[in-house]
Amino acid sequence: MKTAQARVLLTGASGGIGQAMTQALLRSGAQVLGVSRSPQESRQPGLSWVQADLTSPAGISAIAEAARVRQINVAVHAAGIPGFGRFEDLSAQQISAILQANLAMPMLLTQALLPHLAQSSKAQIIFVGSALGRIGLPGFSLYSASKAGLHGFVEALRRELADSPVRVQLLAPRSTRTAFNDAQAQAYNEATGTHSDSAETVAQALIGLIESESSERYIGWPERLAVRLNGAFPAWMDGSFKAHRRYLSSAPTPLQPGER
Ligand SMILES: NC(=O)c1ccc[n+]([C@@H]2O[C@H](COP(=O)([O-])OP(=O)(O)OC[C@H]3O[C@@H](n4cnc5c(N)ncnc54)[C@H](OP(=O)(O)O)[C@@H]3O)[C@@H](O)[C@H]2O)c1
User: Are 69 and 58 in contact (CB under 8 A)?
Assistant: First the structure.
């Protein structure tokens, strides 16, 4: 749809990518209902907020009700939490928190939004995945699992809703320069020559996805090629990650969830 016709529910609107998405959407004439756990001021025309924690059923209900009242026709799931570190160092608490935030949260919110969206003449649901949802990198086993699960969910839901007015889409950024990447993740990116984008680049890709209504968009080159190669020849790609392993074996213990 034309972005100027979009009334967008945006989770993660207070985050690095979410803030850039909010501004790009407002510039394009969309209305934005942002979600954040902390109170936000909404002084900009077209921008309003719902304060809610996506991990709680009450938070999901509050967001779905605000989305119904504002007649949203686009939902963008950009909330998420990072997970970086050697698999053997991850705690059970980290594993369940990251799977909940990056996989269960967008699934449960989608279930709550669908009764409203399915009644619209046209609606779009856009999930923010990751290049790491298709390429498993050493140090990102948990994060890759959460995003790979999300990618699988998006593909199945897209096919399930193909005859409905709801278009299901995936936006998959590569590493992006926000507070999401802590000092260790940044050092890993530098040591391994991993490319990164600005949040504005991801925001522009979102506008493109809303307008094109295409199924998915992976951001960045050579990551787009690597995603295809990894899908077709995963064992062949296994030989490409020596520098990543070297960094991990010399890295200190990872941060706990919630720490930045
Ligand atoms: N940055 C990257 O390198 C990168 C690369 C590929 C994909 N991505 C994906 O892009 C998305 C946004 O990342 P970012 O870089 O903008 O991260 P960020 O700056 O850390 O922002 C994370 C956002 O998620 C929200 N959030 C987390 N847990 C929540 C919860 N329980 N309830 C409600 N909101 C919650 C935060 O809201 P609060 O204000 O309430 O904390 C914040 O708005 C994530 O899904 C991430 O996986 C990021």
Answer: no
Q: Residues enclosing ligand 1, CB less than 6 A?
A: 11-12, 14-18, 35-38, 53-55, 78-81, 101, 128, 130, 173, 175-176, 178-181
* pLDDT, tens digit, 9 for 90 and up, residues 85-128: 999 999 999 999 999 999 999 999 999 999 999 999 999 999 99
Tokens 């699934």 locate to 107
Distance CA 26, CA 39 (A): 20
CATH assignment of the domain containing 125: 3.40.50.720
For the whole prediction, is pTM greater than 0.90? yes
Range of the domain at 55: 3-250
> In Å, how far are 86, 141, 218 from 227, measured between CA atoms?
22, 16, 8
